[in-house]
């Protein structure tokens, strides 16, 4: 009986030892394998394939935008360099022209009067003009079409003939507006046609006060103002001088037109203006006369161009005698 019991006990202990050792080995193996960090391949396998594809596309898009921005930056740098070169070239050309003009003036070359826009001897500024320009902070060298800003009063004498009204009226309005813009403030404005008719009858023989609203009104009324004209500036210029000259005023008359058909010969017109716009003790004329020519007639048939040439000849001589300048525009549109 004792012997049988001992054999049973020895078998049970051996089984438990084997089982414990096996279980312990399994635990040790698990600990060894889990202690290592997961590799990149393990992480990639856990990310869905769609997310990887989307991120790859975004990366390519960013790279493409970067390349485009880099190309635009290089292109902008090239354009800037080209503009700088152009500016330098224009400055050189301007300096060369100014040098040529100064040299020609010193040599007494009368042909310099035909170089572009004619420069003028300046009128001495009165105390009132100095105050106006000081308040407006306008540089003394301000010009409009070669004409210096040196007058307290300005009068526009406009050719209202059919050729001007139907062809050059829009360009004429631009010239009027540009001229007014250069004069920041004057003591009076007047608008007449080449027959001496006033645009505003309420200001007949009087100066139109210079205010922003008045300037807007002048330009607005000019758009549809078309009184009769005989295509001769004589009546308008003589009316302007006779009605508004005063020894205490600096006045500039701007004549705008395209042809000269009536009013006598050029020499007769010059003599008429000379009798009215006489010289003072200093040799200066009562008012300064400027002319602006619109090439309407000159762009038409050759048989009608004679009146255009007559206008240009008249205004060139008239402005030269009366301290002004004549500017012939290249285009009337």
Report on the structure:
The chain has 333 residues and is an alpha/beta fold. It contains nine helices and seven strands, in the order ααααβββαβααβαβαβ. The strands form two sheets. It has a five-stranded parallel beta sheet. Strands 1-2 form a two-stranded antiparallel sheet. β1 and β2 (147-148) form a beta hairpin. The protein is elongated and about 150 Å long. Mean pLDDT is 76; it is low at 109-129 and 136-143.
Percentage of residues assigned to helices: 40-55%
In terms of structural class, how would the helical and strand content be classed? alpha/beta
Strands ordered across the widest β-sheet = 4-3-5-6-7
Tell me the fraction of residues in β-strands, as a range.
5-15%
SSE string, helix = H, strand = E? HHHHEEEHEHHEHEHE
Mind describing the biggest β-sheet?
5 strands, parallel
Characterize the quaternary organization of these chains.
single chain
Average pLDDT: 76
- Could you give the count of β-strands? 7
Parts with pLDDT < 50 across at least 5 consecutive residues: 109-129, 136-143
User: What is the CA-CA span between the terminal residues?
Assistant: 138 Å
What spatial form do the alpha-carbon principal axes imply? elongated
Rg, nearest Å = 45 Å
User: Count the helices. How many?
Assistant: 9
């Amino acid at each position: 009986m004792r012997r049988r019991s001992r054999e049973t006990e020895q078998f049970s202990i051996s089984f438990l030892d084997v089982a414990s050792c096996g279980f312990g080995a399994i635990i040790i193996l698990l600990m060894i394998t889990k202690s290592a960090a997961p590799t990149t391949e393990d992480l990639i396998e856990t990310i869905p394939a769609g997310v990887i594809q989307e991120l790859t596309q975004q990366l390519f898009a960013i790279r493409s935008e970067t390349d485009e921005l880099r190309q635009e930056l290089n292109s902008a740098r090239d354009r800037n360099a080209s503009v700088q070169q152009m500016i330098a070239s224009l400055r050189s050309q301007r300096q060369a022209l100014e040098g040529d003009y100064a040299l020609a003036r010193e040599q007494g070359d009368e042909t310099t009067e035909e170089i572009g826009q004619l420069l003028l001897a300046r009128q001495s500024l009165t105390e009132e003009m100095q105050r106006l320009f000081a308040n407006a902070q306008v540089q003394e060298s301000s010009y409009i079409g070669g004409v210096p800003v040196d007058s307290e009063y300005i009068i526009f004498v406009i050719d209202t003939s059919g050729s001007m009204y139907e062809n050059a009226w829009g360009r004429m309005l631009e010239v009027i507006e540009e001229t007014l813009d250069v004069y920041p403030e004057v003591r009076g404005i007047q608008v007449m046609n080449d027959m001496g008719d006033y645009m505003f009858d309420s200001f007949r023989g009087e100066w139109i006060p210079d205010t922003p609203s008045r300037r807007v009104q002048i330009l607005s009324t000019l758009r549809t103002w078309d009184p009769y004209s005989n295509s001769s500036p004589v009546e308008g210029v003589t009316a302007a001088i006779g009605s508004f000259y005063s020894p205490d005023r600096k006045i500039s008359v701007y004549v705008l037109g395209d042809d000269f058909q009536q009013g006598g010969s050029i020499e007769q017109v010059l003599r008429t203006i000379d009798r009215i716009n006489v010289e003072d003790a200093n040799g200066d004329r009562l008012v300064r006369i400027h002319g602006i020519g619109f090439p309407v007639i000159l762009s038409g048939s050759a048989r009608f161009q004679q009146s255009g040439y007559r206008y240009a000849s008249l205004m060139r001589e008239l402005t030269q005698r009366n301290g002004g300048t004549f500017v012939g525009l290249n285009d009337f549109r």
